[in-house]
Amino acid sequence: MSVTTSLPTKRSTRTTGEMFLRFQLDKQTCAVVPMLQTQEAVIIPAGRVSVIPNLPSCVLGLFNRRSSLLWLVDLPEILGLEPIDRYAHSYDVALLKVGQTPLAVAVRSIQGVVRFNKEEIRSPIGSFNPAFTPYLSGWILQEQELVLVLDPEAIINAKMFGQNG
Length: 165
Hints:
Elements: E1 18-24, E2 30-34, E3 38-45, E4 59-65, E5 68-74, H1 75-78, E6 90-98, E7 101-107, E8 109-116, E9 136-142, E10 145-150, H2 152-156
Parallel strand pairs: 2-10, 5-7
Antiparallel strand pairs: 1-2, 1-8, 3-6, 4-5, 6-7, 9-10
C-alpha cells in the first residue's frame, strides 16, 4: 500500500528564477535544494522503513518506492544538527537524484517550492562551521531569513555512507 500525502506549500510571490524545494532542518534552520535534482517530496510512514543494523546513525534504513529500494538518511544529522526523531510516526522526505544515483533525505518538514536567482547565492566559505561547508552551495537571505542552499551531489557522495572510500 502506498501512502502519498499532499504537503503544505510555502509559495514565493516570485515568478522568475530557478525553482528550489524548501524545507526545515531544525527550529532555526531552513534549507533548499534545486528542483532539477529533486524527484519528489513525500511523507513516508515509519513502518515502511526497514532499519538495517551496523550502519552509520545517519542512515535511517531502506524503503520501497515505486518498485525501487531507496536509502533514507537523516539530513539534519549529516549536517551536524539535532537528529530526526527515530520514533516518529512518519518522515517528511525529499527524494534527490544526481545522475542515476537516488537518495531519500528525511527533514523536519517540507515547506514547498520557492524561486530565486542563482546570482543571489552567497559563498559559504568562512560563514559556517567548516564541517557544514562541504554540503553547501551557499546561502541566501529570503524574506529576512538565512536559507542554506545545499548541494545534493555532495550529500549523495558523502563518505559517511561508505560508497566512496
